[in-house]
């Protein structure tokens, strides 16, 4: 099973990207989690699309299509979804068939705040559903006060490690159907 993982943060020391790296290590046997960087994805522009998708967009759409499911680490900026992540959803919502159409998505998120990324994940679920993706009714992984749980880019909090392990395993079972 191939899961594509994307972080809504471009920061080199991103807590959300660290969460995805931890998920790679915690994935059940037979599940491969591949990180995909959104760094080179241009802003969605229908004029650009009309001329043909740029190489970074083609790579993004192909990666989404090839994946059995998506694992998305959703930061929360100013109470909402990041522009980087919304842009990626917009590009992957285009085409026939759209790469996100029917795609299973699993959300996680980390924030220095107490409530984790609850508002951003709600907004992301709405955008993904509008794009035709499926966000399965799993429990949330909302890693609050993440700066106390990830040290040097490594998830160290045992409770969070176990929650992430269960979440990824449950998602893999949903994808298997």
TrEMBL record:
Gene3D superfamilies hit by this protein: 3.40.50.360
Gene Ontology molecular functions: FMN binding; oxidoreductase activity
Alphabetical list of InterPro entries matching this protein: Flavoprotein-like_sf (IPR029039), FMN_Rdtase-like_dom (IPR005025), NAD(P)H-dep_reductase (IPR050712)
Domain NADPH-dependent FMN reductase-like: 1-147
GO CC annotations, alphabetized: cytosol
Protein name per the record: FMN reductase
